[in-house]
């Protein structure tokens, strides 16, 4: 199986980093060339929301992939992917706070409390914050591997909340094709973990700390 | 194709009309797909000639009318209406048509007619969105007869000085400016007069979210978002707050239609 050396790994990381910035670059490019459509704010909200979910799936795919492909080094990409998930979630939330509510926190708060689909998305976003804050090596050391891992299992809650948020957003339009697709992907990614745990087939020790 | 009409100053709002490009590329017309750009992309396959509208049900003179006779039924007027979508955005559109009441009077509803139902075309060969499970096709909408008789309710054949583009509901639709946009059925092939309240497509799909009346009302929120404000397409930029939504979309003259009704209950 492919096992990159340290120079190769560095190149891979840079490539992934640049690729992960492309969705943002596209939005900026579209903004300057007037291609965000008749409702640019909706376009940006949708796009940043979609990319949050894509990166969530990618992040959750790392553990199953490294096991199925026998490529344990993939773990070295996980932190970056997770942080990009957070990055697009921040952009998504900022679009909501800025363009929908114009930084009127009180109004935003009413919206969060009143509407379940927003409340769920907001909760998922809030839960992402401690994960982003504890993503550095220093924080892993400070927390200790065990409690760090316990904290980061929050992602198993965040992922379904993200799907639910998307599901309810689409519900009024009765258009479930995409939420179902994302739901199935997340279910498989989480289900594999449960399955492996259940089978006690943990022969391959998984390193949990990012490095 | 140009469609000559005389502007009716009594029905012209002073807001700035939305750019033609925005009004024709940002559409909800699920028969062509659920994305806002789908109708302009795939609307070309709709065949609008020949076209007939069957008028039936509780009327003394049921008939099938072709589009030419509909165009000649009454003098064509240009009216500039606000359009408020239930999703929280709005446009200002110069429509061409005449009050639906002219057609209703011609076909003479019986005393039993209390409602009017609009049925849109649902042809899989022309409309790629038909067959998607999003709605029960065909798309149906309806109004109470007095709402349909209100002079604001426009039988619409054109916009921006031309016949309707396919993505905007060619060749004939209704426009009911004080209700959310989805009440204004597009590409109508049948108009039926009924005793009972007709089932409407969106109400069947999500009864909690889309009521039969669906009057624009800033005080009655959609279950998933507020209806208190709206974004005017093409005008409200990143740096302007959304504008306040007006009761009945600003058409307060229709308020008397709903005297004594609890508009929270009959949303």
From TrEMBL, chain A:
User: Residue limits of the Ferric oxidoreductase domain?
Assistant: 49-162
Give GO BP annotations, semicolon-separated: protein repair
What does the record say about its membrane topology? Answer: Multi-pass membrane protein
Give the protein's cofactors. Answer: heme b; FMN
Its subcellular locations are: Cell membrane; Membrane
Its chief place of residence is membrane
* Segments crossing the lipid bilayer: 12-31, 51-69, 81-99, 119-139, 151-168, 180-196
The cofactor remark states: Binds 1 heme b (iron(II)-protoporphyrin IX) group per subunit.
GO CC, sorted alphabetically, is: plasma membrane
The protein's UniProt keywords, in alphabetical order, are:
Cell membrane, Electron transport, Flavoprotein, FMN, Heme, Iron, Membrane, Metal-binding, Transmembrane, Transmembrane helix, Transport
What the entry lists under InterPro entries is as follows: Fe3_Rdtase_TM_dom, MsrQ-like
Magnesium: present as a keyword of the record?
no
Q: Which GO terms describe its molecular function?
A: electron transfer activity; FMN binding; heme binding; metal ion binding; oxidoreductase activity, acting on diphenols and related substances as donors
Function recorded in the entry: Part of the MsrPQ system that repairs oxidized periplasmic proteins containing methionine sulfoxide residues (Met-O), using respiratory chain electrons. Thus protects these proteins from oxidative-stress damage caused by reactive species of oxygen and chlorine generated by the host defense mechanisms. MsrPQ is essential for the maintenance of envelope integrity under bleach stress, rescuing a wide series of structurally unrelated periplasmic proteins from methionine oxidation.
Q: Which PANTHER family match?
A: PROTEIN-METHIONINE-SULFOXIDE REDUCTASE HEME-BINDING SUBUNIT MSRQ
| HAMAP family per UniProt | MsrQ (MF_01207)
Q: What quaternary arrangement does the UniProt entry report?
A: Heterodimer of a catalytic subunit (MsrP) and a heme-binding subunit (MsrQ).
What family is it from? Answer: Belongs to the MsrQ family.
Q: What is this protein called?
A: Protein-methionine-sulfoxide reductase heme-binding subunit MsrQ
Provide the species name.
Paucimonas lemoignei (Pseudomonas lemoignei)
